[in-house]
């Protein structure tokens, strides 16, 4: 199923980008080649600000934006070109023009004429906006993936070290014993004394406390233990899927990130969502476990013995 | 009160767990240092192992997000959202939450900035954020670490959990905050 999701994301993405670009080109959304009139007020010989009314902008682009009545940006003149520095408050289309132009917040426009304060400029030609964005995304997200993985090394090593200690000392077994009655019910395929149970409990406890840094390494350790019980290499077991369903529901006592953002944005009661998100994630957890248990019985999700021992060629090097 | 206890707990939990594990291991005469190092060796290996899975997943998500497909999808889903009483402003959150952690974090902040963190939409969007995890990241990393590529019903179960989480968030917020 991950296959289809992957195909879907890539194809829908590329198609949506292409059709948006074609539509934008046919309606000339970015008004390529049309002169734009604005006011330029210089503060020094080269620096100043440009401003124009919202009304003019809306009429020019045929949109209805939600911004102040007068829009202004810092700008400087260099010869027959004007550099306009867009910021977060700049209207949307100008932000896109700046980003597509040279992937920054700077728009370099040609000055066509200037009479006193009034100036007529020609904005850079903007086309293939979404296609360029997709191209950028491919590169930046590949880099992000590696950055995330490498960033995990240190914390991962630390927690795997602590887990090994806990295993060697028998601590994991003690923890597992306490929660055995619940775990046996959720994971009937796993022997109750198996180290996988202890590792899964540790992962869930870390998630509950909102300790994301600890939860991932502990969860991966649990996956390794679950894999040791897997008789069909390369295929997920029922226990793995149930375990992941619990993880993706993300039940936590303290949704620390959401609370922090609320507080940062000046909420009067940032922690008001403690109860509500516990409710939401609690329902999600129950639904996830139930879905995993019900779906595993469906014929299409049964483990196919014919596939056994024949991993696809791309995996042959593992 | 509960809030303070929970927050304190989340801070002291890690040092406490570490101390307890080390102390117990020492008591059981486990060669603590050697044992720790032996376990930690796996850290590098696991991180490297998940790279191809993570690249595949994140690039697909990146293409999807950059293409503007999300805006089109939001428009298509507007009637359904309307039907279940979900404000259109939070539909992007419901769609983005399972796909990207950083993306949905940015979206949550942006939505709250626009409508205010204490407005109904602000509370709902942060509840939705807290009601789920980044399903596709979890699947890529966890299955990647043990080289699982036939994931069977994992995606379906994860997405059902997400959908119920989002609807649960909507339900409780409607009940408590209008």
Which secondary structure elements does this structure contain, and how are they paired or packed?
The complex is a heterodimer of chains A (318) and B (178).
Chain A: H1 2-26, E1 36-42, E2 47-53, H2 54-61, E3 70-78, E4 81-85, H3 92-102, E5 106-115, E6 118-122, H4 129-169, H5 171-178, H6 180-186, H7 195-208, H8 212-228, H9 238-249, H10 256-264, H11 273-295
Helix pairs in contact in A: 1-4, 4-8, 5-7, 7-8, 9-11
Chain B: H1 2-27, H2 32-40, H3 42-66, H4 69-83, H5 91-96, H6 101-115, H7 120-130, H8 135-145, H9 154-177
Descriptors:
heterodimer; A: 318 residues; alpha+beta; 2 domains; 11 helices; 6 strands; elongated; disordered C terminus; B: 178 residues; mainly alpha; 9 helices; 80% helix; globular
Tell me about this structure.
The complex is a heterodimer of chains A (318) and B (178). In chain A, a hairpin with a 2-residue loop joins strand 5 (106-115) and strand 6. In chain A, 55% of the residues lie in helices and 14% in strands. Chain A has helices at residues 2-26, 54-61, 92-102, 129-169, 171-178, 180-186, 195-208, 212-228, 238-249, 256-264, 273-295; strands at 36-42, 47-53, 70-78, 81-85, 106-115, 118-122. Chain A is an alpha+beta fold and 318 residues long. Chain A folds into two domains: 31-126, no CATH class; 148-310, no CATH class. The two termini of chain A are 22 Å apart. Chain A is elongated and about 85 Å long. A six-stranded antiparallel barrel of chain A has the order 1-2-3-4-5-6. In chain A, helix 1 packs antiparallel against helix 4, helix 4 crosses helix 8 (212-228) and helix 9 (238-249) runs antiparallel to helix 11 (273-295). With 178 residues, chain B is mainly α. Helix content of chain B is 80%, strand content 0%. Chain B contains nine helices and no strands. In chain B, helix 6 packs antiparallel against helix 7 and helix 7 (120-130) packs antiparallel against helix 9 (154-177). The model of chain B has no long low-confidence stretch (mean pLDDT 90).
């Amino acid at each position: 199923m991950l296959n289809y999701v992957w195909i879907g994301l890539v194809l829908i993405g590329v198609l949506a980008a292409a059709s948006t670009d074609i539509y934008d080109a046919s309606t000339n959304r970015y008004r390529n080649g049309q002169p734009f009139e604005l006011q330029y007020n210089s503060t020094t010989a080269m620096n100043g600000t440009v401003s124009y009314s919202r009304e003019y902008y809306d009429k020019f682009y045929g949109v209805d934006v939600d911004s102040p009545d007068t829009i202004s940006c810092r700008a400087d003149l260099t010869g027959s070109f004007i550099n306009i520095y867009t910021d977060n408050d700049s209207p949307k289309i100008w932000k896109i023009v700046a980003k597509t132009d040279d992937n920054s917040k700077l728009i370099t426009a040609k000055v066509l004429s200037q009479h006193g304060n009034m100036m007529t400029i020609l904005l850079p030609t903007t086309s293939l906006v979404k296609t360029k964005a997709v191209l950028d995304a491919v590169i930046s997200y590949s880099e992000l993936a590696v950055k995330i993985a490498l960033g995990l090394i240190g914390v991962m090593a630390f927690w795997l070290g602590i887990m090994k200690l806990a295993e060697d000392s028998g601590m994991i077994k003690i923890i597992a014993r306490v929660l055995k009655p619940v775990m046996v019910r959720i994971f009937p395929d796993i022997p109750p004394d198996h180290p996988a149970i202890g590792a899964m409990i540790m992962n869930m406890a870390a998630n509950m406390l909102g300790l994301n840094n600890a939860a991932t390494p502990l969860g991966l350790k649990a996956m390794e233990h679950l894999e040791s019980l897997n008789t069909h290499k390369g295929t997920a077991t029922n226990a793995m899927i149930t375990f992941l369903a619990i993880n993706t529901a993300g039940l936590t006592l303290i949704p620390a990130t959401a609370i922090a953002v609320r507080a940062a944005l000046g909420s009067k009661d940032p922690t008001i969502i403690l109860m509500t998100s516990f409710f939401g994630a609690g329902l999600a957890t129950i639904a996830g476990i139930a879905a995993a248990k019900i779906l595993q019985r469906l014929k299409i999700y049964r483990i196919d013995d014919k596939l056994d021992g024949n991993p696809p060629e791309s995996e042959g090097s593992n | 009160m509960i809030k303070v206890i929970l927050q304190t707990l989340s801070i002291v939990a890690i040092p406490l767990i570490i101390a307890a594990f080390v102390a117990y291991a020492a008591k059981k005469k486990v060669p603590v240092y050697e044992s720790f190092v032996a376990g930690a060796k796996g850290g590098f290996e696991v991180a490297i192992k998940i790279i191809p899975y993570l690249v595949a997943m994140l690039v697909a998500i990146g293409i999807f997000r950059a293409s503007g497909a999300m805006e089109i999808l939001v428009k298509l889903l507007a009637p359904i959202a309307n039907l279940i009483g979900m404000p259109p402003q939070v539909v992007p959150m419901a769609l983005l939450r399972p796909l990207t952690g950083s993306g949905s974090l940015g979206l949550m902040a942006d939505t709250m900035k626009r409508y205010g963190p204490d407005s109904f939409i602000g509370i709902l969007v942060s509840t939705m954020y807290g009601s789920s995890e980044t399903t596709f990241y979890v699947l890529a990393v966890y299955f990647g670490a043990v080289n699982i590529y036939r994931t069977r019903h994992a995606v379906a179960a994860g997405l059902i959990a997400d959908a119920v989480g989002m609807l649960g968030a909507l339900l409780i917020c409607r009940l408590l905050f209008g």
